[in-house]
Amino acid sequence: MKLIVVYTRPESLQPVKQELYQRQIYAMSITNILGAGRQKGYVEMYRGIATEVNLLKKIRLELAVPDDMVKPALDAIMTGARTGKEGDGVVFVLDVAENYRIRTGESM
Q1: By the 8 A CB rule, do 108 and 67 touch?
Q2: Which of 38, 41, 80, 91 lies deepest, with the highest CB count within 10 Å?
Q3: pLDDT tens digits for 59-85?
Q4: Rounded distance between C-alpha atoms, residue 89 and residue 37, angstroms
């Protein structure tokens, strides 16, 4: 089993979810986060004062998938999140050593 962690733009969430659903991948956790990467932020004027905004709104998407579903999940994420612009995001694939269902205590 693998844990896929994705950091991407908030507006990419719907396209990514649709691509995942087409591949019968439904279980995921989504968190709103702030982050800085290659985009480096921007400067905006607020009440006449220039303010540097370098922590941008992003989402963190987590999926735990069986080994045979990693490739379809990655294809879905890449298809749904890609705009071709800097800031599209990054994907991490991590090994899951063990996992248990709390209700029953069974190993999955």
Answers
A1: no
A2: 80
A3: 999 999 999 999 999 999 999 999 988
A4: 9
Over the stretch 26-36, which tens digit does the pLDDT of each residue have? 999 999 999 88
Sign of CA pseudo-dihedral 4, 28, 41, 34: negative
Which pairs count as long-range contacts for 37-44, CB under 8 Å and 24+ apart, including other chains? Answer: 37/7, 37/87, 37/90, 38/86, 38/87, 39/86, 39/87
Q: How many helices (H) and strands (E) does the chain have?
A: 2, 6
Region for residue 105 given its phi and psi (left: phi exceeds 0; alpha: psi -120 to 50; beta: otherwise): left
Please name each of the domains of the chain with its CATH number.
2-95 (3.30.70.120)
Q: Give the pair of three-digit tokens for residue 7.
A: 């950091």
Q: Decide: helix, strand or coil at residue 18.
A: helix
